[in-house]
Amino acid sequence: MRLLMTTILLVISALSWLGSAVSVPDVPPELDLSQFQDQNIITRDVCIIGGGSAGTYAAIRLREMNQSVIVIEKNDHLGGHVNTYDDPATETAVDYGVLYYENLPLVRDYFDHFGIELEKVSVLEQNSTQRRVDLRTGTPAGPAEGNMLLALAAYSAQLAKYPYLNTGFNLPYPVPPDLLLPFGDFVKKYNLEGAVDIIAMFNQGAGDILQQTTLYMMKYFSLDVIQGALGGFLIPTSHNNSELYGAAQEELGEDVLLNSIVTYTYRNDEREFAYAVVETPSGTKVIRARKLIIAIPPKLDMLKGMDLDESERALFGQFNNTCYYTALARIPGLPEDMQIVNRAVDTLYQLPPQPAVYVINTTRAPGLFAILYGSKDHMAEAEVKGNMTRSVMQLRNAGIPVEPPEFVQYSDHSPFLLTVPPDAIRNGFYRHLNDLQGHRKTYYMSATFNAHDSAQIWSFIEGLLRTSFL
């Protein structure tokens, strides 16, 4: 992704392994509006920091609600975790980030707003040949254990006990103990072994799923996802998920500042406006807005430069995160109709220890494969690609005469799933987090507040907009 930045922004970006939508320093200087020319002061009802799935949806919906908006996005396009590669050899669009959407009215309405047609696809009935291989050694792995459909029915019955998990983290007090169990213990308690393999396929990016807290696993692998897995998901008929964000960017027009980073924010409940100082390719701008939306992961290293108070800093400082990476590569020797699922031959439920490749998927472009990879701690691009390459080369031991992958695209989706320990959840963390909505004119709308799932993010935002922005 190419960023058009001034020299100072390049220095700021180098200070962080990820780069964030707000930047250093932590303590902003006094804001003196007299230092800015009138054309560099932009007034809106709402300023949105982050133009991914959450920020883009919020912007489109707010404009429909007759509110003026401005979106600040650090990249040169909208879309966040949506990654699309236009293969020059075949002129084929290949998605390697967000792939599918649940078949829900809200999803259909959103795409219909832009006149984008959708079609249903079956994920479990794809035409590719699946090989289960231990990519540490190339040893073939056996089939998944247990009866998947019976286990999914039992898992769904457990989900039905907690309808409040459908949107947000509106947890009761006390929090049900089962939700705080390590997911591996939850699986054993309710005999869900037959569902682990499919849950692992859908909950990529969630870290060690057996050690992950059950609450997050159930939020991630929800009833809507199960329905999609069994009945089909939606995709654009163009097979290009970036089409949605291109249409949104065109509609928003000058209300999007791309290649831009917020360096300071100024929020005071006694003032009529909140302020954000933004470095853009055309110089420094000041955004003056009645409300501020943070649509990026609320980790402290992502929020440098934001004038956080003690309560905000204390809550955001508790988050841990997983890391997730995707790549597109040509892999000579790998059959074009073959999917490789990484499964260990010596672990519980055959789940590969991380860091590890999750899966090597076929794509619409002949000879082009998507490689999905996860880790607990962040890894540099060269290290991830090196590990991907070693995993691919182990396929030779499985009788597949592959050559080293030739990478054409790579995306780092870290920080991915944000979590806090069970004790924090038990002690009311999410109750306090929810109390931040509207605090100091600021609202939070990202996957962290619901689930890493576009449809679920949009559903959460829809509710919050209706209660707090009408």
Automatic annotation (TrEMBL):
Q: Which UniProt keywords apply?
A: Signal
| Record Pfam families | NAD_binding_8
Cite the Gene3D superfamilies for this sequence: 1.10.405.20, 3.30.70.1990, FAD/NAD(P)-binding domain
Record bears the keyword Oxidoreductase: no
Which residues does UniProt assign to the signal peptide? 1-21
Query: What protein name does the entry list?
Result: Amine oxidase, flavin-containing superfamily
Species for this entry: Aspergillus pseudocaelatus
